[in-house]
Amino acid sequence: MRGRLVAGNWKSNGNLASNQRLLEQVRAEAPRLRGVECAVCVPYPYLFQTQQLLAGTAVAWGGQDVSQFGVGAYTGAVTAAMLLEFGCRYAIVGHSERRGIFGESDAVVAAKFDAALTGGLTPILCVGETLQEREAGVTETVVGRQLDAVIGKAGIAALGKAVVAYEPVWAIGTGKTATPEQAQAVHAFIRGRIAAGDAAVAAELRILYGGSVKAANAAQLFAMRDIDGGLIGGASLAAEEFMAICRAAGTVTV
Ligand code: PEP
Q1: Which atom in ligand 1 lies closest to the alpha carbon of residue 210?
Q2: Model confidence over 93-130: pLDDT tens digits?
């Protein structure tokens, strides 16, 4: 039976003082969570602080990106080994902001996925379509292509050690959430695509939904058969809201 996961993506937010307050609240609430793993993906400079505050608790942490390269002359890039040294369990790869703003191709995302996995991290692979693509009716083509790039590079078995996050680009940071039915349809497509390669991997794969999830809509989303938790942006910056989302993932039974 696959577990549930709610991961916060802080993006480029936070400072030492606000992080401390947020992490202390998450740490205090976490022992009351049941049936859900909780994680925070923080900016690189705050990994040390996060490790100091969360080590020994049930809350995991990770990076928001990872280098596709190893050590060497790659200015600005942070390797999987460096993330591991700071206790990271996860690394987000292929977030739509990385794909869109930083121009990361499917091939780069696949290389980052591979580097994270072989480096001992659990990649959280983000996939999702833009509004234009949804309206053109090519959501499955786009998401399928994004998945296939990773499967082609790392192999289907690699998905068994990863997490996938379906994040429709039009729902990220916009306040527009996919309906539970819209999200479920794409989650089922993702699971089916992976099942075509390996049914056991697909059955155990955690597929998160991301896109304007908040405490008010989390339970309906997490009640869907193929939604195993969430990747949470804006709402992960407020401890009460984030923990309410974690609780919604933990208490719902499908
Ligand atoms: C995200 O950044 O992954 C995300 C889902 O953001 P938000 O929850 O703010 O839409």
Answers
A1: 5
A2: 999 999 999 999 999 999 999 999 999 999 999 999 99
